C-alpha cells in the first residue's frame, strides 16, 4: 500500500498464467515453487503467449545456475525469499 499498488494473488502457477493473460499487470512477482504448475513453467507459458511485461522470479534458490535458468525462461530478474522491500524497490 505504501507504494500505491494493489496486489492480486494467484494460489498456483496455472492460476497465475490465467490471471496474467486476462489482466493488465504492470509487474508479476512469480514464485518459482508453487503447486499445480511451478513458476518456471508458468513463466514459459506467459512468454510463449506474448506476455511482455516484467516478471520477477521469487525464490530461495539463488545459485548462479538457478538464476540463469530463471532468466533463460523469461524472467527479467530474481529476488531471494524472504523478500527485501529495499531490494524489490530497486529491481
Task: Give an account of the 3D structure.
By secondary structure, the chain is an alpha/beta fold. The protein has one domain: 3-Layer(aba) Sandwich (Rossmann fold). Strands 1-2-3 form a 3-stranded parallel beta sheet. α2 links the parallel β1 and β2. α1 packs parallel to α2. The mean pLDDT is about 90.
Give the SSE layout.
Layout (H helix, E strand, L loop, with lengths): L12 H10 L5 E4 L7 H10 L6 E5 L4 H10 L3 E4 L4 H6 L1
Parallel strand pairs: 1-2, 2-3
Helix pairs in contact: 1-2
Keywords:
three-stranded parallel β-sheet, Rossmann fold, kinase, single chain, 91 residues, transferase, alpha/beta
Give the gist of this structure:
This protein has 91 residues and is an alpha/beta fold.
Amino acid at each position: 500500500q505504501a507504494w500505491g499498488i494493489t496486489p492480486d494473488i494467484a494460489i498456483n502457477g496455472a492460476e497465475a498464467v490465467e490471471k496474467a493473460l486476462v489482466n493488465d499487470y504492470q509487474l508479476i512477482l512469480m514464485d518459482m515453487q508453487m503447486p499445480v504448475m511451478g513458476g518456471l513453467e508458468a513463466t514459459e507459458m506467459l512468454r510463449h503467449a506474448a506476455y511482455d511485461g516484467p516478471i520477477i522470479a521469487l525464490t530461495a534458490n539463488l545459485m548462479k545456475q538457478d538464476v540463469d535458468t530463471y532468466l533463460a525462461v523469461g524472467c527479467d530478474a530474481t529476488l531471494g525469499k524472504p523478500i527485501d522491500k529495499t531490494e524489490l524497490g530497486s529491481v
